Structures are given as structure tokens and as C-alpha cells.
Amino acid sequence: FLFPVSNLCGKCKPRDTDLLQPSLNFLYCSLHQTTPCSQQRAVAVLLSNVSLLELLQKVLECTWLRSPPSEPAYLSSEDALLCSGWLLVASLLLYQHRYNTKVHQTLSLDLTKVLNAVIFRKKKPILLLVSIMQFLRAVLRQNFSSSLLVIVGQNTAQGATQPQPSSLQNAALHPLASQQVFSLVVSLQNLLVHKDLLLSQAVVACLETLVEYLYVKNQDVALHVASQPWHRFLLFTLLSGGQKSFLQPEVLRLMTLFLRYQSSNIISQKEISQIVHEAAEANLAELPEATSRALHLFLCQV
After folding, report:
1. Residue 107: phi, psi to the nearest 5?
2. Coiled-coil regions in this chain (predicted)?
3. Which domain holds residue 34?
4. Residue 6: which residues within 8 A CB-CB, separation 6 or more?
């Protein structure tokens, strides 16, 4: 069914939401719920469909044209289609890189608009924010060098005739600018305060990938981002309310991130001891899989 469904999508227009949204979801599920051998063939089929890729380009561009709903949690049919589009493109980026699949049509996106979609949220539904962050993680992991994607709106610090410290920093972080990085980090921190489980998972994953990218590009910037004092306040905020335990997946992953980049001003020996104490008293067999995995990574980092 992959071939006819992808062809059907290529004949649609972005306004055909009732038909497109379930069709893109089918393509997304087909990529993820299959064997590696079949997955490689599925990626090749989708990336050879020029009409489908052109349609995805138009769908993503509708993100900048959408009118914000009266309620940020409200997911309209148009927003649902955008979510499906961003998630499918993120998956195509991931698997095209993994299998080195031939690309017949590139996608073009303005990096500034993608970042601003997260930085200036303008009542975007949570699921749409999560989908865009999933895409952002994919391009960060590939160092903005995917053969499927052309990034426009890059910073131009490399062309400065008299390099200043900020220009040199931007050149190291290219295609990101340092101000974009700091604005994105602040926005991600603010999103964590919402304490929505799906959003928290996406934000922590995005922070992890961002700091990894920065560490390769410019270690000073990465360590500066990881040691921001606001992170400590953020941890206490996440631990407030009904669930005070350190054994929450997003808290453990944040702690692991700070340990990895030696942010001793964020996480102290006292917090480390408290996590180990809670883990020792917990029934490990009954912990959710996400918690067990996050705890394992934390203890390995310690």
C-alpha cells in the first residue's frame, strides 16, 4: 500500500486535510513499524516520489501561515496535518541518513522560521511544538548536512571582514547564531515548566541534542548553556507539586545532561546521593520502562 498511498498524497493539495492527514500518518507508521530491510525499501520508495516531497514542502510552509487558535491546546485539522508533515519529514531525514538513500527532490526550509516557531510559540498546540522539535533534533543530529534538506536563512558571520568575538562564535556554530541558541534554550526551559509529559520528553530530548551539537562546534558555548543557573531553579520547579520524586524520567535525563557537561553549580553531591537513595529503596522491577532507562543512563554517567 505504500506506493499507491504516497502517489495519492502527491496528487493532493495542503488544504485536502481529511485525506492527507491519515495518509501521512500511514506513511509515518509504515516507516517505523517494520523490519530494517523493509524500512530501507520504504524510505527508497518515499524519497523517489518527487510529487510527495513537493507536497511535504508545501505542508511545512503552511506552518508560518497558520492563524493561532483561541486556545493553545486546541488541535485543528490543519494543525494535525502540520504535525503529521513535520514528523514524517523528521523520520525521512533520519532514515535517509541511516541508509544513505538516493534523494530525487530536496526540501528547502528557512532555519530562522523553524527556530522561531519554538522560540515565539504564539499559542501553538503542544503536539505541533513536539513535532517541530522532533524535526529540529533530526537536523541537529545530522549537523545540518542532510542531502534531503537545504537550509536557508543561515547566519553570515563567516563573511565579516573584521572578525569580532561574537562573529567568531557564530562562525563556529554555523548555521546557528549564538543569539538563536540562547533564545532557544530559554524557550525550552519555559516549556518544561508546563509539566506536560509529552512536551517534557520532547524538550529534554531537544536540549540533549542541542548541547551535544554545541559541544562539537564550540565547547565553551556548550558548557555555558549547560551551566545556566536557571537550570537549577527549573529542576526545583519540576520537583514541586504532587510528584516530588527524583525518579521522573525527564528529571533524571536533565540530571544526566548536567553531569555529562560537569555543571556542578546545577547538580550537587547531595542531589546525586538522594537519587541513588531513592533508587535503592524503589522496586526496580515495577519502574516504568522510561524511568528505568533514564536511571540506567544516570548511574552510568555517575
Report:
1. -105, 145
2. none
3. 1-68+75-153
4. 27, 45, 46, 49, 52
